[in-house]
């Protein structure tokens, strides 16, 4: 009896996910020449005011590196006006568009890009319902040369499927956690 109820609830939740088109978009690829400034885009489709919200930009770990804290905004406080914790390599180089927050725009600018800035970035809204996460792949170009690790990452083209599966898995874990 419990199994039938669980399967029915899981089926209902999958149908809800499919019907509401809840999925995470694949990474947006941005190419930039080293030493220049780059904007990493991140906007909620609802265009709601996020001046009092929380969003967190991170650089995804590469090999033995841990996640890098790029930019954190929490209701007006951020790394550039007193919040601690920003990864050293991003200090003084990252800013946001304060006037665009009222339009749901959490985009950032990284100034004076370096080859070490190449990689995957996430823009995360943990308190949004449902939580939103966006992926950006930054590729630094030196002439026509791309770092081989970046080529390997870019060769995987179906990120939307991976994102959808991760979203569904996360949702089921949340549902199971609340039903235990």
From TrEMBL:
InterPro entries referenced in this protein's UniProt entry, alphabetically: Ig-like_dom (IPR007110), Ig-like_dom_sf (IPR036179), Ig-like_fold (IPR013783), Ig_sub (IPR003599), Ig_V-set (IPR013106), IgSF_BTN/MOG (IPR050504)
Ranges annotated as spanning the membrane: 159-177
Record keyword Transmembrane helix present: yes
Alphabetized SMART domains for the sequence: IG (SM00409), IGv (SM00406)
Ig-like domain segment(s): 25-123
Protein localization: Membrane
GO-annotated cellular components: membrane
The entry's keywords: Immunoglobulin domain, Membrane, Transmembrane, Transmembrane helix
PANTHER family documented for this protein: BUTYROPHILIN
Name of this protein: Ig-like domain-containing protein
Native species: Sander lucioperca
């Amino acid at each position: 009896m419990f199994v039938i109820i669980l399967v029915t609830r899981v089926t209902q939740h999958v149908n809800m996910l499919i019907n509401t088109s809840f999925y995470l978009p694949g990474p947006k690829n941005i190419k930039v020449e080293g030493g220049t400034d780059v904007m990493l885009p991140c906007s909620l489709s609802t265009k709601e005011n996020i001046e009092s919200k929380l969003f967190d930009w991170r650089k995804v770990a590469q090999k033995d590196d841990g996640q890098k804290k790029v930019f954190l905004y929490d209701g007006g406080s951020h790394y550039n006006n007193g919040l601690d914790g920003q990864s050293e390599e991003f200090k003084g180089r990252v800013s946001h568009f304060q006037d665009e927050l009222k339009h749901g725009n959490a985009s950032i600018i990284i100034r004076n890009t370096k080859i070490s800035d190449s990689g995957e970035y996430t823009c995360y809204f943990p308190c949004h319902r449902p939580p939103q996460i966006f992926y950006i792949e930054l590729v630094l170009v030196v002439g026509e040369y791309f770092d081989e690790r970046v080529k390997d990452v870019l060769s995987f083209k179906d990120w939307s499927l991976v994102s959808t599966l991760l979203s569904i898995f996360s949702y089921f874990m949340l549902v199971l956690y609340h039903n235990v």
